[in-house]
Structure formats: C-alpha cells, structure tokens
Design a protein that fits this description.
The complex is a heterodimer. By secondary structure, chain A is mainly β. Chain A has one helix spanning 2-24, and strands at residues 26-35, 39-43, 64-75, 80-86, 94-100, 107-108, 111-113, 119-125, 128-141, 155-161. In chain A, the strands form two sheets. A five-stranded antiparallel beta sheet of chain A has the order 2-3-9-5-7, with no helix packed on it. The two termini of chain B are 34 Å apart. The chains are: A mainly beta, B mainly beta. Chains A and B meet through α1, β1, β2, β3 and β9 of A and α1, β1, β2 and β11 of B.
Amino acid sequence: MNRFVKTALVAAMGFGVSAGVFADNVATQSVTYEVSAINELEVSGNPGALTVSTATAGQAPNSVSDASTTYDITTNETGKKITAAVDTAMPAGVTLTVNLGAPTGATSAGAVTLGTVAANAVTGITTLNETDKTITYNLSAAVTAGVVASDSKTVTFTVTDGGA
Amino acid sequence: MHISKSLFICCCLISSAQAADISVTGNWSEMINETDLTAGAGSDLRSPIESGSTLATLDITNTGGGSWTVKANKADFGWPVGASLAVRRTSDGSGSGTVSGGGIYLSLNSSDQEFFTGSGDRSGIQIQLKLEGLSVSNASPDNYSATITYTIE
C-alpha cells in the first residue's frame, strides 16, 4: 500500500513536470504593421507663360494653352478626387482653366475654371499609382478685360475625399 | 515488481524533463506610409520590407545535448491578399551545441515548416523578418497583425 502511494505520487509529479516542459517547446512572436492613408500627388513642373496676344478681327482674342506638364498620383484609398484652385482671383474678363487627364477608372471633369474655391477636376479615384497624367491649361481673355499686366498664379491640386 | 515499475516511471520523467525549450525575445511593429513609396507620387510601396537583421533572438535550452528541429508557422487574420511574411536566421548564437540551416528566408504559412536544426543548447540566435507583396492596391489603411509560432521538437 505504501509503495502504491509513493508510485502514485511520483507519477503525479511526473505529469506536472511533463506539462511544464511541453508548454516551453513553443514560443510566439507578434508581427504588427499599420498602413497609413497614402495620398500623394506631384506635378512635373510649371507650365510655360500663357500670353493672350492675338485675335481675328471681329472675334474674341485667341486663347492659348499649355500641355507641357503632367502629374503623378498614388493613393491606397477609395473614393478620392482631385480638386484645383488658384491662390488669388483671376482678373475680371480673364479665365484660366485646367483639364486633368484621368487615371484608370476615374473621371475627368474636363476643362475646369480655376478660382479661389477648389473645383473638382478628377473624381472616382481608387487605389492606384499612375504617372504622367496630362495637365492642360488654357487662358482666355475677353476684350472687356483690356490690357492685363503680367501676373502669376499658384495652382493647388489636392487629393481629397468625396469623389464618386 | 513494484521496484521495476518505479524505475520505469523515473525513466519517463527524465526523458520528459530533457525535452528542449525554446523562447523568443523581440516582436516586430512597422509603420507603412508615404515614405515607403519607391519613388514618391505615382509609385507603389516598396517590397520587400525587412526588419532589422537582429530583430529578435531565439534561445534553445534544456536539450540535454540532443538534436532538435525548430519549426515555424504564422497565423493572421484579414491580411491583404498577396501579402506574405518570411523569417530567416541571421546568426548562430552561442553555446555548446550546433545550429544549421534557416539562413534563407522561409515563407511562413499556417502549417509548421522546418526552419532550422541543431543540437545542444544555443542562445542568442538572431532572426530577421520580411514582409512582401504589399501594394497600394491591396493594403488599405488599417492595422494588421500576425502571430509567428516557433516549435522545437
């Protein structure tokens, strides 16, 4: 009887040690990463000077355009759009528009008149990275604008929420 | 007869107590943002993204000098489709035993795979992790996590 008790005790101890060893033959490590919202847009440079200086008799002055620049875009979000605005208002009778080529799956708004309030230029942008999308500026002036001194504007393109 | 039973049980105890132990020190946390684009706007996320070469260390003890195999697997939930995680050994560590294999990245999945082998106790075995297949098209803004399980047999 005494021997039976000792054997049972040893067996119980053995079971406990064994369980502890088994628990230690496994080790775990956690890997976590966070992906931030990425919305990057970059233009290739500044367009050339736009000068309205010719007209056909009887017609409004000829508009001029520039398509020498492009933009690159990367976003990892859905439903984004590009808006465009100028830093200060255009002179009365002078209109500057911009037309952005749309990335794959997005929609260009065509020629958008630039003002100090941001206007939608491209909508429906979803998770993409594309380069060399066209930017076309157009400057027109009504005769009522008269002679306008040379000026420069800063055009700001913004990738933001809300593009359908 | 009772004596022989007791000896048998003691032998079992000794055998169980010499099962090798493994422990890992060091987790990996990574922030991925616009600085991870390969060339700014218009480009995609760089791939692979690697941890430091000495990210974590594995210690192998209680081997009794015997041979062992370390296996590894990964459990994740909701990872981006196409994203993968790999591990490699970047140092031998130190100790009386030996260590072999594991120097080439092992792409982890949900099943145990042999990572490296060795014998005897080794400590300070350094490992490195690699994340591949992330893209702006599959990695929406979110937090992602996984657990790597190392098992020694």
